[in-house]
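Problem 12. The chain below contains 196 residues. Write out its predicted structure in token notation.
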Amino acid sequence: MATDLKLNNQDDLLLERIKAGDEHAFELVFKNYYPHLVLLAQKYLGDRDLSESIVQSVFVKMWEKRKTVEIRSLKGFLVVAVRNRCTNELKHRKVVRDYESDQDHKVEPVWMTFNENVYLQRINKVIDELPEQRRRIFRMSRMDGLKYREIAEKLNISPKTVEVQMGKALKYLREQLQPLKKQLLATIVLLIMLQT
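Solution.
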């Protein structure tokens, strides 16, 4: 109990110094809490690299918002922030997984391949519209078949960045290609009606 009180008092002093822009105080807090927070994130995510990336981003945000964010308990703030980021990450993964699974399990009749070249040209055009890094990541994942970690290593970025960029790329493709799918379907229905 006495140790907790001592830690809380020390944390309060460090927080005051951090608010004043003291980088040394921030470094002390980082060194003290970082390993425990990474372990916490790893329990949620099961991925060491991603856990480290998330904890680092929490610390970066804390430093950036040091003058405006109200922190009553340093440990409580950091634990809740990491837990929230992990929960958001798991939700994001589920959305991406559900979308990819939905796309993989769609079995379309042979006649849906009508005018496939138009569709492929449009897909390539939409991919070319992506920002450079996002386009590169998308092609490495979907066309070269690389895993997120392999892409991250090749581009010297975190696997989390790769996952976020892939999520944005898939969302953009879905938005841009949805009208074309409807248009192609309408054309096919019209052709079938004309043949009967």
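Discussion. Residues 159-195 form the longest helix (37 residues). Students who got a different answer should revisit the alignment rule from Section 12.3.
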